[in-house]
């Protein structure tokens, strides 16, 4: 079943022509209307008329997450503020957020991408879909919410947390599909077991749409077998818009809407395109975005483009499951956390010394982050109450900046490892 068969099954040559036309219009627009893009292109010695074929895209400069921070909040926007109908905010590396703005058309294209994706996994107006991604500044909740409404499904906007209640609602309302992080579904499965709930017997749940963090084929097998459901990978980033693309019923790669996004895969060491089908870092150009365009954005996710046409008949480009990132960003319960953000938070606290370690673990399916911090000798006290108060204050500050709960362990000065070369301050013990 297709949402827009004409576009989704368009012959590849025609799609390429369409992409080139969109790219040329986009480049001309940003060159003429935005200082950042105009300056970057002039520095690189490239003009809009130099883009004559899709391969000419390599002449354009890359864009990095750092640019989003440097030009925060709205200097990368290419429409007047009055045309912006929504903001979403994602965490940056130094506690400073990155802001994405959307025009009405941007929201419509986002919804349309999701409508195509949800249709490709068989979601229809017969479905009741529980959206258990965070609602608010994060794109997961609202993104899935409106996308599912477009296909006519009934949305249960349950957000995150309150797992027992979520399970009761799932049973009472006959929820057929859930959208959440894979780790949350594992947790939900555990809680359900404790409550004596058998998904096959007690619920109508048949599909789970899982993403916002890496997960594996092993986790898929475990969830599908123990819950009697089918799982689908969903991918997207706040810079692109939010969650957008899923696998189809074939579950053999994530379909990208080629008419709205152009994907390159490069070698992160050389910045050059990899050979067809080889793994590398994904570089994204959003062909139709109005408020906040993205041109050759280094998304840092590692994947490859699938060469063969999918059995489902869609000719749209497909990427493989994301296996990791070429930078140090951690994803804790679906929230992006950079080690540098942790450092930035700690360094605001006068009692904290300059050594710390971040330990990430998975406890009963949920990610936990513990930060061991050295305390300056003069700040150490024999009074347990003082130390507890300091620990609580650091935990409070960390939660405020990072948006995830952090357990702080206070360490005496000189007790944490020192590094001669590059510091290795993150121990990630999660077994995916
Ligand atoms: O995580 C958007 C999203 C919401 C996607 C809900 C899917 C479902 P950000 O917070 O900007 O946006 O984080 C984007 O998360 O660059 C990847 O590293 C990672 N990521 C997202 N989906 C997947 C996935 C949302 N299916 C960053 N597999 C991306 C692996 C994923 N990693």
Q: What is the strand content?
A: 15-25%
Q: Low-confidence parts, pLDDT < 50 over ≥5 residues?
A: none
Q: Which structural class do the helices and strands define?
A: alpha/beta
Distinct bound molecules: 5'-O-[hydroxy(phenylacetyl)phosphoryl]adenosine
Main beta sheet, described?
Answer: 6 strands, mixed
What is the straight-line distance between the termini? 32 Å
Shape, principal axes of CA atoms: globular
Mean pLDDT: 93
Q: Which bin fits the share of residues in helices?
A: 25-40%
Could you give the order of strands across the largest sheet?
Answer: 4-3-5-6-7-8
Count, helices: 12
* Global Rg: 23 Å
- Count every beta strand, where a strand is a DSSP E run of 2 or more residues: 21
List keywords for this structure.
single chain, 432 residues, alpha/beta, 6-stranded mixed β-sheet, 4-stranded antiparallel β-sheet, 32% helix, 25% strand, globular, binds 5'-O-[hydroxy(phenylacetyl)phosphoryl]adenosine
């Amino acid at each position: 079943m297709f949402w827009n068969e004409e576009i989704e099954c368009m012959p590849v040559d025609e799609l390429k022509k369409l992409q080139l036309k969109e790219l040329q219009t986009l480049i001309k627009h940003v060159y003429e209307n935005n200082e950042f893009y105009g300056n970057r292109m002039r520095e690189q010695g490239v003009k809009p008329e130099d883009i004559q074929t899709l391969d000419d895209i390599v002449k354009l400069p890359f864009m990095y997450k750092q640019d989003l921070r440097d030009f925060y909040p709205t200097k990368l926007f290419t429409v007047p503020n009055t045309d912006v109908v929504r903001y979403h905010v994602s965490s940056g590396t130094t506690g400073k957020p990155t802001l994405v703005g959307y025009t009405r058309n941007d929201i419509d294209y986002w919804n349309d991408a999701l409508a195509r994706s949800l249709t490709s996994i068989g979601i229809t107006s017969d479905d009741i879909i529980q959206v258990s991604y965070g609602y608010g500044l994060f794109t997961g909740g609202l993104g899935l919410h409106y996308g599912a409404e477009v296909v006519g499904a009934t949305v249960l906007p349950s957000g995150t947390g309150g797992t027992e209640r979520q399970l009761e609602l799932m049973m009472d309302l006959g929820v057929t599909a859930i959208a959440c992080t894979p780790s949350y579904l594992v947790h939900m499965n555990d809680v359900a077991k404790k409550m004596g709930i058998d998904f096959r017997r007690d619920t109508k749940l048949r599909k789970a749409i899982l993403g916002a963090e890496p997960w594996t084929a092993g986790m898929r097998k475990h969830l599908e077998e123990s819950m009697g459901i089918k799982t689908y990978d969903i991918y997207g980033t706040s810079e692109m818009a939010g969650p957008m693309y899923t696998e189809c019923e074939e579950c053999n790669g994530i379909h990208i809407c080629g008419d709205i996004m152009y994907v390159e895969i490069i070698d992160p060491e050389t910045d050059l395109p990899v050979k067809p089908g080889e793994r590398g870092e994904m570089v994204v150009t959003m062909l139709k975005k109005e408020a906040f365009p993205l041109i050759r954005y280094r998304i840092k996710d590692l994947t490859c483009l699938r060469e063969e046409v999918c059995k489902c008949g869609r000719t749209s480009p497909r990427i493989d499951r994301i296996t990791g990132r070429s930078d140090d960003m951690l994803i804790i319960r679906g929230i992006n956390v950079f080690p540098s953000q942790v450092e930035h938070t700690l360094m605001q606290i006068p009692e904290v010394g300059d050594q710390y370690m971040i330990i990430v673990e998975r406890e009963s399916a949920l990610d936990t982050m513990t930060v061991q911090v050295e305390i300056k000798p003069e700040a150490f006290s024999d009074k347990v109450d003082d130390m507890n108060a300091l620990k609580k204050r650091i935990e409070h500050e960390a939660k405020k900046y990072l948006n995830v709960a952090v357990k702080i362990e206070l360490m005496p000065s000189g007790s944490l490892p020192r590094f001669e070369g590059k510091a290795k301050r993150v121990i990630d013990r999660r077994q995916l």
